[in-house]
Amino acid sequence: MGATCHRMRGILPYRLGTAMKPCESIPVAEHALLPLADLKNELENYEPVNLCPGPEQNAFVVASRKCRDYQRLNRDFRVIEAGPDYVVRHEFPERAADFHYAQPLPTGGMVLVSGRCRQGEKNAWLLGHEGHCIDQLCLGDGIEDVQVTKRGDIWTSYFDQGVLADSGLDHGASGLVCWNMTGEKIWEFRPKDGLDIICDCYALNVVSEREVWFYYYTQFPLVRLTEGGELAWWTCPVHGAKVFAILGEWALFAHGYVRKPEFTLLHLRGEREMVPQTRIRLLDDRGEATDDVLSSARGSVLFFLRDGTLYSVDIRRFIP
């Protein structure tokens, strides 16, 4: 029988709380991260809203201007694009929506997306290369993540309020959807081969048009979607993680419900098995663990943002 989506975020059954025990006996290694970019100047007087990974081992920081008037909704945004050896600032003053996600488009423009949406609203703005809005789409309410491929496929995952469609919008009822740039739904998740429905898609990693990975409540399987719609999945011993990096048969998962500033390297084996190999504590340039900071992942690369410094690390560093 399929799961019933009745969970409120942050409340979980006791049985899931023991999910990390098989990993806890593994020794912990420490790894010092190297800064990818210094964004302190770009973030002066701005608060980071989200850290969005791009398809070219780059990242997009969505930030809003700090506002002293707490009675006024601040809609002055900027997006800071950063990669190896470059930083670009995109200004979007006084937009008519609160945006949480930014992704590049193959046209040279960008898509800005708000995670929340009411009936009749369009929460995705497609911008041309000069920053002008050329189209608006409705991608639904309760968006957990947005990742766009080099071809322009727009992948959206949804948390429980989007899946349950409390607002009357059913765009995210399947938990994971792929759209084209005209807003047409070209794929959505349908469970099969022993998989359950998505109640809350905790983490998404769009490697390319041919390879998409996702991980969700309630069973917390790690699922791979390949070209042609083929699904494969593995039972993950980490429950409640919000980010993971992936490369072939290796995955690096953030801590889950057990709040520890550690990542777990797992080996994907046949028969849907994921075997913990090592635990890794990632440290910033001050020697502090990357816990409770903005983080994201795309393909094999993890990104972190702390105090205006952007860090990245590739899972290849840890694969034996």
Your description of this structure?
- By secondary structure, this protein is mainly β.
- The chain has one domain (14-317): TolB, C-terminal domain (Neuraminidase), CATH 2.120.10.
- Helix content is 3%, strand content 46%.
- It has helices spanning 21-24, 160-164; strands at 28-32, 34-38, 46-53, 59-65, 77-83, 86-92, 101-104, 110-113, 124-127, 133-137, 143-148, 154-158, 176-179, 185-188, 200-208, 211-217, 221-226, 230-235, 244-247, 250-254, 263-269, 273-283, 294-298, 301-306, 309-314.
- The strands form six sheets. The chain has a five-stranded mixed β-sheet. Strands 2-25-24-23 form a four-stranded antiparallel β-sheet, with no helix packed on it.
- β5 (77-83) and β6 form a beta hairpin.
- The N and C termini lie far apart (40 Å).
What does this entry show, briefly?
With 320 residues, the chain is mainly β. It contains 2 helices and 25 strands.
Count of all domains: 1
CATH superfamily: TolB, C-terminal domain
Give the name of the CATH architecture: 6 Propeller
From the spread of the alpha carbons, the general shape counts as globular
Q: What portion of residues belong to β-strands?
A: over 45%
Residues in helix, %: under 10%
The rounded Rg comes to: 19 Å
Structural class: mainly beta
